[in-house]
Every structure is written in structure tokens, then in C-alpha cells.
Amino acid sequence: MIQPGQIYRSCDPRGGPRIRIVRLAPGYPAWGWSKTTVETVTADGRGIRQRAIETTQLHETATTQDGQPRRTGYALEQP
User: Fold this and answer.
1) Which residues of 6-32 are buried (b: 16+ CB within 10 A; e: fewer)?
2) Among positive and negative, which fits the CA dihedral 45, 50, 56, 57?
3) How much is the pLDDT for 18?
4) What is the model's pLDDT at position 41?
């Protein structure tokens, strides 16, 4: 379940930003497309550049159901 404060990392094999969930769309979770507000997390932990992304881009793991590494979206960082 997506929660504010969670940090996700890019699944792009070339690298990419880490993002933090700022807030969820009203009514989340809901059927269909919904968006969440995220911010880029800098190396020192600051949040910059807030924007909305589709919740379908957020994944619990960095692998697909058949065990292949994801190449798109963001995977939840485990503490």
C-alpha cells in the first residue's frame, strides 16, 4: 500500500532519481487511474521538484512476476 513518506528508486538500468511520496490523490485507492504527488530526493535527503505521477508507476519490488528486473517505473526501497 502506498503511504506518504515512502521512498522509491528508479528501475531504469541507467539510473535515475529517488522519489518520496508527498500525498495521495483524494479517494486513493480507487479503481482506474489515480495520481500521487512525489518529490525528488537529493543525496542529502532534501525534497525538491514536486510533481504528480500515475500510481501505476510505483511497484513493491524491482522485479516482475516472472523474476525479470523492471526497466520502468519506481521500486519501493526497503529499510
Assistant:
1) bbbbbbeeeeebbbbbeebeeeeeeee
2) negative
3) 93
4) 94
